[in-house]
């Protein structure tokens, strides 16, 4: 009996191909395999999200939503939505195909198009180019087959879309409405592909995980009800307010989420500062990070506490208060502390000058967030006049500058 190699078995349909790009219609052969649920999934989820600030209930909710279908993580900027999305993919043993949405997206960017290519020999050729959705679905099929051969490989590849509402979803994803809204093996026709390679059946293991900025309403598009029905929306919010009487520097365990955020911000700011200042052969990045962390918790501790007190005032301001409400994300606080430390080290400033430099860092990192159409000018002005040291100079001046510009608020 003659030997039959793998290519022959693939061509005969006995086994699926390892690359479906030229055999798109054969994805149907492996499309019905659903996600594998690992018995140790919750342990994997805990490990993947270690160091992230999310309530356990949020993690379990989004995990259940991903088992059911496509998910959108919505919330203010800087709350860790993208980090959570990637961590969830790790927990589900899925690799990611990351893209960032754009207002110019059309069906050609999402499904595919024909492009004219010029080769090195000056010959022109029209070639099919897959859009983001098509390419990620094909890669997912390839990944599924690799997982069959080696269970340690990812079980799927998912499309990760950042800033989903930057795109006009109805214009870009309109042709996918039927597929996204059904569990049936409904094929998508790919007009840019050749005959015999045009009908794509999306694997059941495929997911879209998207992030959505729910606070900034400028330069974004609303999502229609048709699109919303095809996703599960999970809110990723700022941490809950610190309980009354608990200190930011509390060492109690288990710590409230707000205190965990305080610790994480200090640690991340110290690590990032160390990375940027770790120069010279004798430098030790970890030792630098430990030194900077000790300074932020020690001599600069009261300044860091004043920063968190300021953020807390605006994060949780209610309608009855004359304080602007802004859900400032964890990322922005880390950025502010990092900038403060870098300026301090660069200038060789004394500890006595630190208050002024933190005031400056807040004025250039956090104050621009108040230049938004959701804050009334009279409230912003009143808030600015109530600021006390160390934020009663540069921070106050920049806030009053926004009020004077008069372009941030529209009735």
From TrEMBL:
AAA+ ATPase domain: residues covered: 67-241
Annotated protein name in UniProt: MoxR-like ATPase
InterPro entries the UniProt entry points to: AAA+_ATPase, ATPase_dyneun-rel_AAA, Methyl-DNA_Rec/Restrict_Enz, P-loop_NTPase
Matches recorded under Pfam families: AAA_5
A single GO molecular function term of this UniProt record: ATP hydrolysis activity
Origin superkingdom: Bacteria
């Amino acid at each position: 009996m003659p030997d039959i190699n793998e290519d022959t078995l693939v061509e005969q349909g006995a086994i699926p191909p390892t690359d479906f790009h030229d055999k798109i219609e054969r994805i149907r052969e492996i499309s019905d395999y659903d996600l594998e649920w690992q018995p140790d999934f919750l342990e994997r989820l805990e490990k993947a999200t270690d160091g992230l600030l999310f309530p356990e209930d949020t993690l379990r909710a989004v995990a259940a939503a991903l088992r059911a279908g496509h998910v959108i993580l919505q919330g203010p900027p800087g709350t860790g939505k993208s980090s959570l999305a990637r961590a969830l993919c790790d927990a589900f043993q899925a690799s990611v195909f990351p893209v960032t949405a754009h207002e110019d997206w059309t069906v050609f960017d999402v499904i595919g198009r024909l492009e004219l290519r010029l080769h090195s020999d000056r010959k022109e050729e029209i070639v099919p180019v897959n859009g983001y959705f098509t390419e990620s679905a094909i890669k997912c099929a390839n990944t599924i087959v690799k997982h069959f051969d080696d269970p340690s490989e990812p079980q799927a590849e998912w499309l990760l879309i950042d800033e989903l509402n930057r795109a006009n979803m109805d214009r870009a994803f309109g042709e996918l409405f039927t597929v996204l809204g059904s569990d049936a093996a409904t094929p998508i026709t790919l007009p840019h592909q050749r005959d015999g390679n045009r009908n794509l059946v999306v694997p059941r293991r495929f997911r879209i995980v998207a992030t959505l900025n729910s606070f900034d309403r400028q330069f974004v598009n609303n999502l229609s009800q048709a699109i919303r029905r095809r996703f599960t929306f999970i809110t990723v919010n700022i941490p809950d307010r610190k309980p009354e009487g608990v200190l930011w520097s509390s060492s109690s365990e288990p710590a409230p989420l707000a205190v965990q955020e305080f610790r994480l911000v200090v640690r991340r700011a110290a690590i990032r500062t160390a990375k940027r200042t770790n120069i010279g052969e004798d430098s030790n990045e970890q030792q630098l990070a430990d030194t900077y962390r000790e300074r932020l918790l020690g001599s600069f501790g009261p300044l860091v506490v004043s920063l968190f007190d300021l953020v807390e005032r605006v994060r949780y301001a209610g309608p009855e208060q004359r304080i602007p409400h802004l859900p400032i994300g964890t990322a922005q606080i880390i950025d502010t502390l990092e900038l403060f430390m870098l300026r301090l080290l660069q200038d060789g400033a004394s500890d006595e000058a630190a208050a002024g430099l933190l005031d400056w860092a807040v004025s250039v990192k956090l104050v621009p967030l108040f230049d938004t159409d959701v804050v009334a000018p009279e409230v912003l002005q009143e808030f600015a006049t109530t600021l006390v040291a160390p934020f009663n100079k540069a921070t106050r001046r920049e806030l009053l500058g926004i009020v004077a510009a008069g372009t941030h608020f529209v009735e």
